[in-house]
Amino acid sequence: MKKFLLTCMIIFSGLLAFNYSQACAEENSGLELNVVKKFLPWTEKRERLTREYAELHYGKSVTEIEPRAVVIHWTAGPTWESAYYTFYGETRNTGDGSVNVSSQFLADRDGTIYQLMPENKLARHVIGYNWCAVGIENVGGVNNAENLTPEQLKSNIEIIRSLRKKYPEIKYIFGHYQQNAARASGLYIEKVPGYYSVKSDPGKKFMRALKDELEDEGFIFFRI
Questions:
Q1: Residue 126 pLDDT more than 90?
Q2: What residues are paired with 138 via a beta bridge?
Q3: Is the Cα dihedral 210, 180, 101, 164 positive or negative?
Q4: Measured between alpha carbons, how far is 207 from 224 in angstroms, rounded to an integer?
Q5: Which of 26, 58, 96, 140 has the most CB within a 10 Å radius?
Q6: Taking Cα atoms as reference points, which of 73, 85, 76 lies closest to residue 38?
Q7: Which of 142, 110, 106, 109 is nearest to 125 (CA)?
Q8: Per residue in 132-141, pLDDT tens?
Q9: Residues 197-222: tens digit of each pLDDT
Q10: CB distance 70 to 207 below 8 Å
């Protein structure tokens, strides 16, 4: 009987998480973009942890963002699945109990675009800018190899253009490694002293290619 009740509780909890994620997915649409929707579970716990993170780091108890920038990443892993399941849990694997890292979009090496959460939900992917930045993860970059593909470049361009059409306020495009240079945008907020990490993704080659394709469309890039 106890095993039966435990199984029912697990199934019920899963259904709640699924329904909550679906509600989040449905509340924001309208992007003109061909994506595979693989929404991360947006549970009540994830919502609470996101609010706590935003309050601690930005002084704002929010779970939604004001899109002003797009930040480009690589996953440093070989498959989209490895990235997806890294993001899947509610908390980081560091044991500190804080909300897990994540991103709104994930581009596979063949160019397939996975949307992991609504683009206006706060995802933890870049220190100082999560309150206003949409993140695009690209599968690759294992051992810092600058090996992102032409198909991923095309997908990133499609995502950025689609986002700009829906959110005209988006002006800035930068790679994770450009987080310091991007402070010139005036968007950087970080309330925790000394909270910082050095990044190399997605590599200069990829950012140079993005800049060559998009700079004439009015986007602002930083020194490559």
A1: yes
A2: 74, 107
A3: negative
A4: 7
A5: 140
A6: 85
A7: 106
A8: 999 999 999 9
A9: 999 999 999 999 999 999 999 999 99
A10: no
Q: Hey, what are 73's tokens?
A: 């990443």
Among 223, 123, 218, CA closest to 175: 223
219: tokens are 């986007």
195: tokens are 């909270």
Judging by beta carbons within 10 Å of its beta carbon (0-12, 13-18, 19+), is residue 44 exposed, middle or buried? Answer: exposed
**66/19 Cα distance (integer angstroms):** 25
Q: What is the spatial distance between Cα 46 and Cα 102, in angstroms, rounded to a whole number?
A: 11
Predicted local distance difference test score (pLDDT) of residue 93: 84
DSSP secondary structure of 121-132? B----STTTTTT
Query: Can you say how many angstroms the Cα of residue 135 is from the centroid of all Cα atoms in its chain?
Result: 3
> Minimal CA–CA distance to 115: which of 27, 177, 34?
34
Q: Dig out the tokens for 56 from the structure.
A: 């601690």
Neighbours of 151 (CB within 10 A): 14
> Structural domains in the chain?
2-217 (3.40.80.10)
Tokens representing 96 are 């500190």
Strand order in the sheet with 133-138: 36-37, 113-115, 105-107, 133-138, 69-74, 172-175
